[in-house]
Amino acid sequence: MVPFLRKIRKSLLGKSSLGHYMLYAIGEILLVVVGILLALQIDNWNEEQHMREIEVKTLRDLKVEFTENLTDARRVYEGNMGVYQATIRLQQNAKAGVYHMEETDSLIFYMFDWFDYTPKPGASNNLINAGNLNLIQNEELRYLLTLWSGVNAELDDDEQLSISYSQNTIVPFLAAHYPISNLENYDFTLTHYDIQNGMNASETLPARQTYDPSALLNDPVFMSHVSTKKMHAAHNAMECLNVVESCEEILELIEKVLGEQAQP
Known about the structure:
Elements: H1 2-14, H2 18-96, H3 101-112, H4 123-129, H5 139-177, H6 188-192, H7 213-217, H8 220-262
């Protein structure tokens, strides 16, 4: 192409045709400009394709992260609902004068227990900390990802208050007024497998100690602890449900965007 243009330019100069030469010069400039624009367009297209490849990989990482988060959030939600229902049953039994020792033990196990949701750090943290959130094209998904840390923080605040109350108040009270060893019968980790000895631990469980369930269920201090534990469980379940719904929304949008990216 270049030798051909040079021949044309030489021919026009030889004929001293200034008008034709000017037209040729303009055409040559336009050709160069078009070539530069095409090269830039190709570079931009290649860069866009590269960014979309990175986006797809990031979305897949986010899918793994939020699938794990959803599984753990559901576990914690169900656990808190179990605590909530157990405290209601304790209140009902106290009111109705139902004092069955084994049932009381099983319900107190929920009083003794607590649940802690821990989000999995990963692609979402990397995106936000690196300032690359704009890599995600979907505006709604970007918005939900910016809210994600706040949703976690609200649940964590309630959980830490509940855990602190259980560890520092309920456990010491039970240790002083109730045979905590009875709860080993309801700890399925101990019942099914002894990690240290690699054997079934059911034979090593301590004998159930007798106590007066009526005295415990008529103790106003204990029933105050039951009420507090119930309120904590309700708050934790509500906040955990927000986490579950956020995870579900985020995963739904990720699937939508990945589906769009896969289309030709």
